[in-house]
Design brief:
alpha/beta; 160 residues; single chain
Length: 160
Amino acid sequence: MMEIEPTMPDTTARRHRIMLLNGLNMTNLGRRDPHIYGTIGSLAELEELVRSTGAGLGVDVVAVHANDEGALVDAIEEHDDIDGYLINPGGLWAYGLPTRIALAETGRPAFEVHFANIYATGHESIFTETVRGTVMGAREHGYVAALVALVALLDAEPGG
């Protein structure tokens, strides 16, 4: 019987650059309800989780946080070397039209992430209309899932 060895990504050369965008109210991680937000201790801890997962997948992750929507839009517009985006818009899920437009205008794939399932509360995110996928209710694990999906999507594209 032939044994098949699993192949791991070649992490010696980075394939993609991913921007992790965290919007309003994300600096409260570690002080929020653990039933909704899990046991992640801080925004810095979350960013490190995503960066280290990205390194394991052979991608660079650039983390950006802002409580000011204009700063998020500036970050999107100032970095033309980004291949894809992960965004937790925080409180902008209902009103972040400028950020949504800036993401869409890049023409690059984006995934939306929320610690909680906002649909369970009867709300809808305006980002869902334009992103490739949304992960909700999986706490910090949703970021990992969205990152893996985004990298797989980028790898599957021609030239990926």
